[in-house]
Amino acid sequence: MSLLTRTPGNRNLKYMNYLVADFETSSSAVNHLSLLQGAFVLFDERWRELKRLDVRCRMRPTVVPSIGALLVNKVKVQTLKGANLSHYDAVMQIHAFLNKIGPVTVLGHNIISFDMEAYIRQLYKNLIPDVYHLKKLPHRIIDTLNIARATKLVDDKSLKCEISPKGSFLFKLASLCEKNDIKHEVAHEAMSDVLANAELARIMMKNVPEVWEGAIKTGHKSETQKLLEKNKILSHVAYFYGKARWYAIHYLFSHPVYQWAICWDLREPIEPYLKLGYKDLEKAMKKSPKFLRTIKQNRNEILLQSSHAFKADPYNKIKGGEEELNKRVELLDKNPKFLKLMQTILKDQAEEKKQFDQKELIPEERLYLDGFPSDSDKKNMELFHKLEWKDRLPLIDKFTEKYRFFAATLFYENHPELLPKSIYNEIHREFGRRLLSNNDENFETVGKFYKELDDYRNTFDRQGNNEALQLLDEYDSFVQDIEKRYQNA
Amino acid sequence: MIKKKSRVRKFDPSSEKPFTVSRSRIQGFLDCQRCFYLQNKLAIKALRSFPFRLNSATDTLLKKTFDAAREKQIPHRYFKDKKINLVPFQHEKINEWRENFQGVKFHYKKANLIIQGAVDEILINLRTNELSPVEFKSTQTKEGDSVKYLGQPYHKTWKNQLEIYGYLLEKNGFKISEDSYIVFCNASLEPKEWNEKLIFDIQIINYKIDYTWVEDVLDRIKDLLTRDKIPDFSGEDNCDMCRYLQEHQEIEI
Predict the structure, then answer these.
(1) Is A238 in the same domain as A198?
(2) Residue B74 needs a FRET pair 20 to 30 A away by CA distance; which of A398, A454, B104, B126 works?
(3) Is B4 part of any domain?
(4) Which residues 318-357 of A are in CB contact (within 8 Å) with B?
């Protein structure tokens, strides 16, 4: 039969394909880094491989790398300079691939904080209008780092972990692979990481399916919000100071400015706070441990049924047990004025912070601040990618300021010979100013690089690691060339 | 307990006669055990969907073109274009196997269930004698090329369908290939004029079948049918009907 009816159950999310992704980059500064490699493997719901993409590219010429990142990735200068693809073409190729694979649950290790943010910013600077395409339903994004922490917390035997000198479990991908007999050919080589991470995911999915399914349920911000609203009490796995812990939380409201979910930590009774005025409550809200817990809906936080937290310290020691915790929830729900007062305080705090953060941001750092591109910028972006480089030139001045800068930078990086002298000089000077800056910038500068170089040289000298020292010499000469290029800017 | 007179076929625990479970009922069980129980044990019929006549029409036309290739024992042109050297399977029961409410049948004695599924087409590799089940799907979607990855949660239904056909054919004594196919017909919205014709973009989607799960599900179906308790509401992820009824009930309270 050819009926394409949606039978009731067939939207079960565990039947989606998985896309395991990883990027290797020139540094960890997401706004300013250059991609070096991107690897992606598409699997079906039974983890059978359907398609893969492995892209390597030259480093953007407007970037200084971090030695730490290069050493981790074991990248040679030859690759930074001589890979076949330009950075622009690599980003376009990745974007085209990801646009063609249909709905997926994207996963990676620390993907939420790093890889996804890095990818979005490359789209942004490559003049792709829809930078959030992977963040839109039906796609979901889940993080194996969060899942590993929660999996270990729910069932200690499900995952073997290395223990740090401070006594905490380590959840680095390479370490998890080693401890759990997962084949990991070359750590920090993107495709190798992707395949190892897929295997780790399979193990966690099999050993503690509850956490896996829980992670999928919070794989999109709107669904996390629904989950919080529908459940009176949830167990949240929070991770800090090297330890995962349970929190029994009750959702109160969305943050009046940032829209994050604000929840009450049910270890704390409600009565002592109910009658407090603005000042006292504000003071109480700042005290540690905080009774308000923030859940960022797009962070793939692991939220499971309440019973987990009820069994954990300190909730299992609360007099009256589960009944008392339910009473606390009821009390919160019956006191809208109290909730309103907390909202007002949070709003005032956020406004105050905004006034304090008046630093002028450069275009790369204004992705979230400025919001979506205008319709006219979008149109010009679409046109930009359809044309040959020589025909794109007139578009530069049609963009609004920020995108004009990105368009001119793309020319400067890919076809500087086509740029009019005035625009070339403008961009050349701007990157010269940035890369040769002696200030403590939030991106890599030549100065920072040399400082890092000295530190690493000392370390490798002491270790007598000649191979690494030779690699440092190559990096040194590579960055000296960058320095020379901008010295007369 | 709900009492209801119905002509809907239902499981009778006192009967020794095998109970027939169609491919779609197996899917019903996978989707929502509560709804499955209501339908098969208590004979409360599920809501009917609209008859999709246009889709049925494409099915009928496709079947005709496959019949022509069957007669000549040559690959159908869609498969030939993709260099897939399989020909429509010639068998005396082919029409019965493709007929709704008939289909390929197998008596799974362990659970005393008759399993039945009407396959759209069966292809044979004349070199290996392996059969490949084929399913026709027609629609209009913007998903286009990405459909080939079968990544939508509802595509799981299609995969299950092909795997159940593979299971049934194997149980009828045939050698089965792991390659099954979906002939996906996507109506194009590109023509500027109507001309009373729908133009379809055709994709042949390969899916590697693995039907090792089927008998476990059949055992679970039997186990559920012999229980006296209605399963709880499914989670909202699984069943729109359960979600609807539950939310309805909450409002009435």
Answers:
(1) no
(2) B104
(3) no
(4) none
Q: Indicate the range of A5-14, A289-298, B220-229 predicted with least confidence.
A: A5-14
| Domain residue limits at A349 | 220-356
Chain A hits for B137, CB-CB cut-off 8 Å, are 2, 4
Task: Classify residue B236: in a domain, yes or no.
Answer: yes
Cβ-nearest to B153 among A5, A11, A48: A11
pLDDT at A12: 62
Looking at the structure, do residues A205 and A236 belong to the same domain, yes or no? no
Answer yes or no: do B59 and A101 touch at CB < 8 A: no
Residue A154 contacts by C-beta under 8 Å, 6 or more apart in sequence? Answer: A208, A210, A211, A304, A308
In this prediction the ipTM stands at 0.85
Asked if residue A322 is part of any domain, the answer here is yes
Domain tally for chain B? 1
Instruction: Give contacts of A 87-106 with B, CB under 8 A.
Output: 100-104
Same domain, A426 and A293: no
Could you tell me the residue range of the domain that residue B176 belongs to? 19-247
Count Cβ atoms within 10 A of the Cβ of residue A304 and give its class: 0-12 exposed, 13-18 middle, 19 or more buried.
buried
What residues of A are in contact with residue B163 (Cβ under 8 Å)? none
A380 in a structural domain? no
- Most B CBs within 10 Å, among A2, A106, A217, to test the B interface: A2
| Shortest alpha-carbon distance between residue A430 and chain B (Å) | 42
From chain A, the residues in CB contact with B138 under 8 A are 2, 4
Helices (H) and strands (E) in chain B, counts: 8, 9
B217, B26 Cβ separation under 8 angstroms? yes
pLDDT in tens, A296-355: 999 999 999 999 999 999 999 999 999 999 999 999 999 999 999 999 999 999 999 887
Q: Is residue A376 part of a domain?
A: no
Helix (H, G, I), strand (E, B) or coil at B131: strand
In the DSSP assignment, the letter for residue A170 is P
Reported as a single tens digit per residue, the pLDDT across A99-130 is 999 999 999 999 999 999 999 999 999 999 99
Are B23 and B218 contacting, i.e. CB atoms less than 8 angstroms apart? no
Q: For the residues A233-237, what does the mean pLDDT come to? A: 98
Band of pLDDT at residue A6, cut at 50, 70 and 90: very low
Considering A335, A356, A377, which residue would you say is the last residue of a domain? A356
User: Is the CB of A8 less than 8 angstroms away from the CB of B145?
Assistant: no
Of B137, B157, B241, the CB nearest to A10: B157
Contact at CB, B145 and A42, closer than 8 angstroms: no
Please indicate, yes or no, whether residues A315 and A397 belong to a single structural domain of this protein: no
Cβ atoms of residues A370 and A405 within 8 Å: no
Confidence of residue B234 (pLDDT cuts 50, 70, 90): low
**CATH label of the domain that carries residue A37:** 3.30.420.10
Tens-place pLDDT, residues B109-162: 999 999 999 999 999 999 999 999 999 999 999 888 899 999 988 899 999 999
In a domain, A362, yes or no: no
Q: Which of A356, A371, A406 is the last residue of a domain?
A: A356
Cα within 13 Å of Cα(A275), Cβ side: 2
From the CA of B156, how many Å to the nearest CA of chain A?
6
Q: Above 50 in pLDDT, residue A139?
A: yes
CA distances from A233 to A97, A123, A230, A449, B215 (A): 40, 38, 9, 49, 39
Residue B106's SS3 state is strand
| One domain for residues A95 and A42 | yes
Same domain, A182 and A258: no
Are residues A149 and A83 both part of a single domain?
yes
Q: Tokens 């006192």 correspond to what residue?
A: B14
What chain A residue is nearest to B147 in terms of C-alpha separation?
A: A102
Question: Is there a contact between B69 and B76 (Cβ–Cβ < 8 Å)?
Answer: yes
